[in-house]
Amino acid sequence: MSTEQHKIGSGFGAHSTADDVLTGIDLSGRTALVTGGYSGLGLETTRALARAGAHVVVLALAPGGARVVSVASSGRFLSGIRWDDLHFRTGYDRWSAYAQSKTANALFALHLDTLGGDSGVHAFALHSPGQHPHRCSKSR
């Protein structure tokens, strides 16, 4: 089922700017949350809201500094991926499932790092402390 959208007669159209929409509106004392406000339309919206007097909070991270961290483990060596039974229909073994999940985390991080690397977005699969000797797990 579809419902036809009726025009609301706002007077604005595809070529209207954020400043056009906010002309004559005082947003002093108001707070606006803008997602993606670091570039493009989000940035222009942020600027227009600020010019209208709003306190603007931008909910965004610059992609160049972004990173994704997943937890890996040497437990991934306990089992290979069971490509013929990904849903464990022929039997469930918790250690096999654990190993496959850790392999999936490592492969996810590897692929995501490949996809985002040119944009400065990096992904890592880190071993949890205590799995391997590391300065983070040493007593002080």
Automatic annotation (TrEMBL):
It comes from the Bacteria. One of its GO terms (molecular function) is oxidoreductase activity. Coiled coil: none annotated. Keywords: Oxidoreductase. Belongs to the short-chain dehydrogenases/reductases (SDR) family. PANTHER family: NAD(P)-BINDING ROSSMANN-FOLD SUPERFAMILY PROTEIN (PTHR24320:SF148), RETINOL DEHYDROGENASE (PTHR24320). This is Oxidoreductase.
